Structure formats: structure tokens, C-alpha cells
Amino acid sequence: MRACLVEPRPAGPTVYDFSRLPRLGLPLIGALLTQAGHEVSVQAEVLAPVDLATCMSSDVVGISSTTATAPAAYRLADHLARAGVPVVLGGPHVTYRADEALEHAPFVARGEGQATMLELVSWMEHEGDEKALGRLAGLSWRAGDGSHRHNPDRPMTSQADFARLPAPDLTLMAGYQHLTTKPVMTQWGCPFDCEFCSVTAMFSRRVRHRPVAAVADELARLDAESIFFYDDNFVVNKARATALLETMVARGLTAPWSAQVRADVVLAPGRTGEVDHAFLSLMRLAGARMTMIGFESASDEGLAQLGKRSSVATARKAVAAFHEHGIAVHGMFVAGLDTDDSSAPMATADFARATGIDTYQLMAQTPLPGTRLWDRAMKEGRILSEDWSLFDGHQVVMRPLRTSPLELQLSLIEATRHFYSWPRTARSAALGTLSHLPAVLGALRPGLVGALPGLLRAARASRWDEVTNLMRSRLPAHARHQMVEALWLPAVRLYARRQLATWWGSERARDHVARLSALPAQATMGVTS
Fold first, then answer.
1. Per-residue confidence of the chain (529 residues) as pLDDT tens digits?
2. Can you tell me the distance from the alpha carbon of 214 to that of 194, in angstroms, rounded to the nearest whole number?
3. Alpha carbons 268 and 278: distance in angstroms, whole number
4. What is the fold, at CATH topology level, of the domain defined by 2-150?
5. Greatest Cα-to-Cα distance within the chain, rounded to the nearest angstrom
6. Residue among 21, 31, 20, 17 nearest 183 (CA)
7. Contact, 409 vs 396, CB < 8 A?
8. Cα atoms found within 13 Å of the Cα of residue 108, Cβ hemisphere only
């Protein structure tokens, strides 16, 4: 069978555009289908435009979507359906909106869909009947009479089966050569249960992990300049994380990497309040450049509402501890909590600046189908729209309790602009250059000096592939590394300012603000899609 797997990109500019990282579900399914003897191509729209000709010539097309990309997924599915191409929809959104998805495609693979997809493609290959189709766990499908059928859920992948999964095959993706940072996944699931998070709904609170040796082997094969660990919580089990980091050091797999962790990872097990300096030193030795921490709120009341099981004091301690070990911190926050009034976004930005957080994102609280927050928001009539393209965290789609939707939207923008002020961005550029001055001066050889105008033009236009290619062509690896160490932070801050301006200037953002402006100040809360 010829299978094409597609991941659409979100509508409009988002904070994720800089990284251009595809999710790993489709490269994993692609690796499994390839092992089963099928011909597979993977298209991630963040890397390259969707090739419709490839889709149309395939025997089956699988489309994976989040809530924000569901409209794009449905449009592609509708187009292919008109051409008679079988389509399978998968991902977290359609898992919880299967009937909606079946209006656009004949099949929906719910939950952890890799085994369901394998069995479904085999069923197609052997031209199975509806009776056999009804036995495929985790599948929703449209019967010949047009009715929607939902087979029983497929059990979560066991630890033994998870350990046997192959590494996602990134080389199947069109535009693979544009991946300057390579994504790696080491585990699924999260033992915590934050109200807004779809991870536990999709992958459960039972954590399954890959063998340390398998992860290390994958890192060796990738030979990447930098790595992003895609785990929702990289350090669920500190003993396992320690074993992985020690293996990375022993095998020289210490390319700069970033990962998502909790703030309390800096604390030593069993010793209340003490910093685990040994573990943080090991992280840095293994190549840690940045930790991405979901602080979520700058108030203990907000953290309690979310079920975060953390504190503001721990957040402060985490930033200081990581900085002591030379590891940057990207702080992720949410505004619009039930405890937040109109001053909360700016107070959050002030907290992030005062704490010394290096880079920052502040998103609107966004209820996603499948989460406890969605269930509560629906029950309370607080969903403002079911235009799924707006559910990317940038737009306010849930009515806050203590401010208006418009006030919250405008304050989100102003607070982000405040954090990424011009003086702060320029100061970080100056400090980065001074702290790495010998390396920067050493890199300013004639070839690079001649390329500087082109580099600046490409950077201003956010053409990061062009910047990377120019740097690679004009600098040896060691000089390039030193330049990156000196200038990556101001570059990210400059990018964030430009991305905010691009978003704020887009017709899509202006239309959404206009819709929020038209809402009655004290209107009954309900769906107005």
C-alpha cells in the first residue's frame, strides 16, 4: 500500500513557528508501516507545503491534527474524499470529536493510534468486510448506510510494547533537511493531572518509557547540532533520567538540547527544599541549554486552581538553580484563570522579568476537548467559539470570570510586549557579545563579514533556514557554536517581538479582537461560534 501521512500547520503566526518542529506521531506510524512493507511518505506542513499530488496518488492518507489544526485537516480530508481517496483522521482533537470528524472522513483512529492504523491499513490491503472492521479496537468509522460506528477503545500501549516501538523515522518527511533541531521522544504519559492538559487524556497518567540504550542509539544516528526532547515531562523518574544523561555523557552525545520539565526537578529527592546540584550539573554536562517550564501562574491561588501541585517559591528557586548551572529557562504561563483579573497578565510578565526568566510565553487559558477544563467550561457556558482554528492559545476563546474577553486579549499582547521590550532585547545582545567576545571576534573573518548584510536581512525576515545555511557555509563548526552561544538569546527575543507584531497585524487577529469587542459586557455566557 502507498500511504501518505500529513500533519497540517496551524492557521496564522504562532509562537511555535520558530522551531518548525513536527510532532512525532506520524514519523512513528511511518516507521511501523515501512516495517510492515508499505511505501510511506510523511508531510509536515511546518517543514514543507502539502504535496496534493502525492496525497491523491496514495492508497490511503492519514491526517493527524490538534484542535487548532482540525479545520485544515478537515479541508484536506474533504478535498481527498471528493477524489475518492480513503482518509484516516487521528490525533487528540478527533479522538474526542469522532462524530464531527466522521463528517469529513470515513475513518478515525482514536487515542494512541499506531496499532489501529497498522491494522486498518492491513484491512484495506486485504479488502476486508465491515464485520472485520468492527473488530478493530480504537476505530470509529462510517458504515455503508452512513451511520457512525465507534468500536471499543484500544487499551493503552503497555510498557513492553512501547519499549519495542521503533524510533520515529524523520527521514520519511518532506523537508527533513530543514530540521536544524531534531526532535526526540523518550516517553509517553504524565503522572500529573493539570485541569487544562490534554496529555493525560490522550496518553494517560501511566508513563511508558523507551530503553536508555535505544534513546542513546537514536541520538547517535541523528548526529544533530541540537536536540529537542519532545517528552511532556522529561524528568518523570529522576533515576531513569540520570541513567540517560550519564549514558549521553559517556558516549559523547552532548549536543545542546532543550526539554520540558517541572520546576520541582531542581529539588533533591527526600530533602525538603534543597537544590539537587548534582543532577543539575549532570544535565549541563550532558548538553542542557534550556529548560522549558510550565510555571502556568505567578500566584499560588492560580496554581491551586489548575491542580499544578507546585508553588511560586519553587518557581523562583528553579530559575535561580538552573541559572547557577548555566541552563537557560523558558517560562510558560497561562492567563485568564478564574483567579485572574485584568492586571494578571502584566503581573505575570513582571514576575518573569524579576525572576530572571530568559524567554517567555503567555497564553490564554484554552479549553481543549477531552480535558477536564473543557468539560467544566461547557457546563458553565463559557466557550466563546467553536472555530477550532482559534484554539491555539493565542486567542481568548473562554470567557474569564474576573475580566472581559477583550480586556484579557489586549492585556496578553501588552504583557508579552512588555517582557520583550527593545531595551531588554538590546541589553541581552550586548551582554551575550561581551561574554563571548573573543569567540565573536574570532568568528568575524572576511567570509562572514561579507555575509553580514544577507544574514541581517534574512534574520529580519525570519528566514531562519537562510541564516543557518549562511552560517554553515561561512563558519567552521566550532566558530558557529560560539556564535550561537553568544547570540541565541537575543535572537529568540527579537524573533518573539517580530512574531507578536506579525500576529497583532494580521487580519485574523484583528477580526478576532473585533468579535470580542462586539460581545456584550455582561452577556449570558454561551457558545457564539
1. 999 999 999 887 776 666 678 999 999 999 999 999 999 999 999 999 999 999 999 999 999 999 999 999 999 999 999 999 999 999 999 999 999 999 999 999 999 999 999 999 999 999 889 999 999 999 999 999 999 999 999 999 999 999 999 999 999 999 998 888 999 999 998 888 788 888 777 887 889 999 999 999 999 999 898 999 999 999 999 999 999 999 999 999 999 999 999 999 999 987 678 999 999 999 999 999 999 999 999 999 999 988 888 999 999 999 999 999 999 999 999 999 999 999 999 999 999 999 999 999 999 999 999 999 999 999 999 999 999 999 999 999 999 999 999 999 999 999 999 998 878 777 766 665 566 556 555 655 555 666 667 766 776 665 666 666 766 676 666 666 666 666 777 778 877 888 888 888 888 889 999 999 999 865 433 333 3
2. 30
3. 9
4. Rossmann fold (3.40.50)
5. 73
6. 21
7. yes
8. 31
What is the separation of C-alpha 188 from the centre of its chain, rounded to a whole number of angstroms?
A: 14
Cell numbers describing residue 48: 514543507
* β-strand pairing of 226-229 with 257-261: parallel
Give the single-character DSSP code of 180: S
- Grid coordinates of 291: 529548560
Cα(108)–Cα(358) distance, integer angstroms: 41
**168 touches 456 (CB < 8 A):** no
Those residues with Cβ within 8 angstroms of residue 487's Cβ, 6 or more apart along the chain or in another chain: 429, 432, 433
Grid cell 479549553 is found at 367
4, 61 contact by CB (below 8 A): yes
- Find out whether 429 and 490 touch, Cβ atoms under 8 Å: yes
Nearest-CA neighbor of 315 among 264, 259, 358?
A: 264
Report the C-alpha gap between 230 and 259 in whole angstroms.
7
Q: Is 473 exposed, middle or buried (0-12, 13-18, 19+ CB in 10 A)?
A: exposed
Exposure string of 487-513, with b = 16+ CB inside 10 Å and e = fewer, is bbbbbbbbbbbbbbeebeeeeebeebb
Cβ–Cβ under 8 Å, residues 101 and 126: no
What are the extents of the domains in the chain? 2-150, 178-424, 425-504
Looking at domain 178-424, its CATH class is alpha beta
- Cell numbers representing residue 333 in the block: 504561563
Per the confidence metrics, is the pTM higher than 0.70?
yes
